[in-house]
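Hi W., the coenzyme A complex you wanted:
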Amino acid sequence: METEVTLIEVAPRDGFQSVKEMITTSDKLAIIAALARAGLQHIEVGSFVSPKAIAQMADIAPVLQGVAQLPQSFECIVLVPNRRGAQLATEHVCQRLNFVFSASETHNLNNVNKTLSQSLAELRQVQSVVERSERLSLRVSLATSFDCPFSGKVNAQHTLALFQQVLDISPDAQLALCDTTGRAHPFAVRSLFERALALIAKPEQLIFHCHDTYGLAIANVAAAFEVGVRSFDTAVAGFGGCPFAPGASGNVATEDVVYFFESAGISTGVDSEKLKEAIALAEQIKGAQLGGSIRLLNRSKREASADA
Ligand code: COA
Ligand code: ZN
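Structure:
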């Protein structure tokens, strides 16, 4: 079914990576399966990164094996920070690589131990891995597009110049502008996306990735939608944090974005009743930092009916 907006579920990567205690592969797969049953057609299931950087992602190979056995099909996305990650991904079943680097040089050094020009060189290599592969597509995520946890506000002109460099290397890739810290304001979101949309051929290439640290995520999603963005990263139960963005809270909650769009008559393709199963599983993960408004509302309703 054609939906009016596309939600890309990122809890199994952006959310899980912040949990210190190892989540078992079968618990990860149970949530991924529940998300697919709820209608999510694009799920970032993990990353090929150094286990020294993020131990939680060390089971990406068995996660991908498990995903291949699931009855529901969806676009399976894996994050890669370098060519090594892209090469590893070619040995497994997945459909899209999400190459990540940061607009902020300081954040990029902290997150992937590379300067911006080293990461652009890495992107060229990842692009050629994708070109050689018959089944892989590419997405590029520009972390800290608005704000950096270490060096503060990121200049929009600088972000757009990098955005253009990415387009020059990978003209057909999806491109995500990420509010990694959650400090972006709806006015800044509107302005940056308006300018980014003017640079790309196909608006459907553009994705907004946002965090809800200051409670502005839904307002930011609305601002991006109003200027023409139609794809959004979301995390069930607002699962989140970021090990390389101190203080940031989870991504905007999938169920909140579903509620926001569906209550305005805009289809997301996600069944909010079925999504409750994935929320319940997320609530059982030890050490998970959760957020979102709908989840808390449903919990109070459940508690009230149990008391009655
Ligand atoms: N997947 C798995 N292992 C990898 C890897 C990848 N994509 N890239 C490198 N490695 C391994 C190397 O083989 C090496 O292993 P060894 O010590 O056993 O020989 C080790 O990691 C270091 O490799 P090196 O190329 O020197 O990388 P680095 O130490 O400069 O770290 C990154 C660079 C990108 C690998 C690391 O910073 C990283 O994985 N960051 C991920 C950050 C992240 O996921 N952030 C959240 C998402 S925004
Ligand atoms: Zn994020």
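DSSP finds twelve helices and ten strands in the chain.

W.
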